[in-house]
Amino acid sequence: DTEVTQTPKHLVMGMTNKKSLKCEQHMGHRAMYWYKQKAKKPPELMFVYSYEKLSINESVPSRFSPECPNSSLLNLHLHALQPEDSALYLCASSGTGSREKLFFGSGTQLSVL
Amino acid sequence: AQSVTQLDSQVPVFEEAPVELRCNYSSSVSVYLFWYVQYPNQGLQLLLKYLSGSTLVESINGFEAEFNKSQTSFHLRKPSVHISDTAEYFCAVRGANAGGTSYGKLTFGQGTILTVHP
After folding, report:
1. d(CA A45, CA A31)
2. Is A62 at the interface with chain B, CB within 8 A?
3. B-chain residues within 8 Å CB-CB of A101?
4. Is the pLDDT score of B101 beyond 60?
5. What's the pLDDT score for residue B16?
6. With contacts defined as CB-CB under 8 Å, which chain B residues touch A29?
7. Which of B32, B90, B108 is closest, CB to CB, to A99?
């Protein structure tokens, strides 16, 4: 199994809603990532988890809250988002060496109304 | 810190024509280089990577890229493109000795949209 699975594929939410994005991999990878990709832009790193611990937070607003409950799962909890947070949210995983390639999921297309 | 510049935002070509997508990088340390492809409404897929060794790397679907250290470039080429190659292509760089918390930090270029016309 070489897949990173993200759910849901599409999400529409209001600014007062609370929702969660989910990501799952069964490749034994101990590094997992959240990227944000605005339309016609490259992905931007948000968070990195290594061995289930948060190791990088790229100054992301607190309305985005990541969680890594175990080595296969990565969640991104969303609360009080703004319309400018609308984007494709990509999850990725990899081994923990710098030579390791990232495997990306297909993403969750988020629209904030 | 690293940066990546993809010199062309859009490249239109006809089917069976050759194509080159240009990528230049800047870094104060040794780097690993990657090309990713993104089809509409999809995540990114690794196309090829340069880690060490031969400076010419190839993918299974006919793309190749050459690492040129003196020109700090990693251009992507294909001698004959197909309609199915239409996608956005991202060049990315990562520090070669990045350890600790830095290994996950891929820096992407702005992307090049390749459109193959019949």
Report:
1. 13
2. no
3. 34, 46, 49
4. no
5. 97
6. none
7. B32
pLDDT tens-place string over residues B54-94 = 888 888 889 999 999 999 999 999 999 999 999 999 999 98
| pLDDT tens-digit map of A42-76 | 999 999 999 999 988 888 999 999 999 999 999 99
Chain A interface test: which of B10, B44, B110 (most A C-beta within 10 Å): B44
Q: Which residues contact A45 (CB under 8 A, 6 or more apart)?
A: A33, A34, A35, A56, A58, B104, B105, B106
Residues of A in contact with B43 (CB under 8 A): 4, 6, 90, 92, 104-107
Rounded alpha-carbon distances, angstroms, from residue A8 to A20, A78, A110 = 9, 13, 9
Select from A37, A58, A101 the residue whose CB has the most chain B CBs within 10 Å, as the one to mutate to test that interface: A101
Least confidently predicted of A76-80, B41-45, B88-92? B41-45
Counting other chains too, the contacts that A45-53 makes at CB distance below 8 Å and 24 or more residues apart are A45/B104, A45/B105, A45/B106, A46/A76, A47/A76, A48/B101, A48/B104, A48/B105, A49/A74, A50/A96, A50/B101, A50/B104, A51/A96
